[in-house]
Each structure stands twice: as structure tokens, then as C-alpha cells.
Amino acid sequence: MTQTIGLFVVMWGLAQAEGGPGIYRTGDSASWETLEYVPFQPYSHPRSALWHSLLHIPAMDGADVLPPGRWAYRSLLAVRSSDFRETAEGGESIFDAILHEEVFQVDHGVADQVEVGVRLSMGELLARDDDILLFEGGRQIVPDGERAFGLDSLVLRAKWGAPLMDGVMGALRMEVKAPLGREDRLLTAQTWDVSGMGALSWRAGNWTVHFDLGMMAPIGDPDLFLEEDDVDPVVAYGVSAMYGLQEGLTLGVQLEGNTSAFGGISVLDGSVGTVLVTGRYQLGRVSFLSAAVGTGLEERSGDWIVSVSLELWD
Description:
mainly beta
């Protein structure tokens, strides 16, 4: 956490040193060849809903692509609270915990309409009860372990996009997660998660609407449970609407969710979803402070989430 706050301070200093707003003016039409679309991007945070936080289900993303030679840097902090309890054969399953997650991401436009990036995640799962328990078939199947701060995963990503018509962009992207965390810390499954997503972004006046749809397939042994250890592919979706309220300030609402990856575990089997209210404020010419507050749509989706992100675009 200390390292993340330090990086935030450094990025904040860079943001303050670059001068006043220069990307967006209320009423302008966005250009896909510049960075004018940046304030209208959806809030890109790790999707998380109880046990699904252990898999890499790609974050909501727009269809816009960095121009060749341009860079984007993002540092993100997120806190998620869950209090899930359900009685099954053998006892009461409990996931009463707070997840602290820290993400560092760098993206680069390598060619016309082609962008690549890397994302490093770390965090800590803090159980508010004695521990996290999960009963299936009359047995408790969550292994004991040390729930401590540590690395989560490394994600490699690539995106290709193109204008489809006036004001509409389409994109395809692929992401691959490599697990870095220890099994007992419950930060990530030991699977390699491979995903393919499609996105549409539609700009009309001060509004931009984003649609995200795709699939994630976990490969390998997740090493999450003492038994019933298989996890299923999931279909993920997202919808975001961003509005330019005034110069340098955009507000939005975002809905995202996915099908269950745990069809073999009765208390976890079911789709999950989250709704967020988001905002982005332009600090400098190419720097932004973004934030989101949201809640799960049902018990398996968690209680609430608070997240803040500092972004630099070069």
C-alpha cells in the first residue's frame, strides 16, 4: 500500500506540472485519431464479486485505441466489501471479507489502431470472520492459509480497433493472465485465464456509450479448493454511459457482470453483476483523476466497492 501511495504522489506531481486542460472541451466532437476520447472512457477496474475476484475477468474497456507512439499509464486502488453467508450441507459458507487491490497498467499504441499493454495486480484479502469457509457435499473445501499482502497476477493485453461509421468505434481485444500469487492468500486462482472481448463505443454530442461482450476461459488447475476444483468458462458483459458535464469533468453509470465460473459448487452457482457510478476529472493537459462507487446486484456479487484511479496519457 505504501508503494502505491508513493506512486500516486509521483503521478500527481507530474499531472500538476503539465499545465491546464487541453484534451476536451464541452460540445467538441471526439477525434479517434487524438486523445479527445479519453475523458469518456468507461471506468476500467478489476471485476470482482466474491470468488470471481480470483479469476481474471477483463475490466470494462472502450473501443478506442491509442494512436501510434502514444502511452497511457494508470495506477488504481480499489476496496471491496463482501458479506456472504449461506447454509449448505455440512455447515454455513462464509465470505465476510474486505479485498484491497492495487493495479498498475501501461498501454502503448504500437501501430495504426493497434494497442498493447501490461497490467500488474497485488493486494490483500482481510477476513472479518475467523476465516473464509465454503461447504460442498458436507465438507469444508477452502484450504487454510496465510491471508497476507502479496502479488496477484500479471496480465498481457492487446487490442485492435477501427471506426465502423461516423461516431462509432469497434474493437477486439485479447488478454492473458499469468498467476503470481500464492494459493493460500486467495488473491488469484492458479489458472491461466485467456479471454477475448468485443467492444463498441458510440459518441453522440456530450454522450459516449460503451458496450462490452466476450468470454474468459481458465486453463489449468485453479488450486482453490480441497475438492470440486474445476472452474468453468464465463461470458462477461458491460455497458457504460459517460456524459460530459462541463469542461474537464465527465460523469457516468456502468453495469457489468458475468455468468458463474463455479457451476460445480451449489452455493456459488449463479450469475453476478455490479452497478457503478463513475466520474473523471481532468487534472492537467493529459492527466485525469477517476473514481467509482458501486454495489453488487445480489448477494454473490458482494456488498460495495470504492475505487480511485490516476491516469496519465503521453
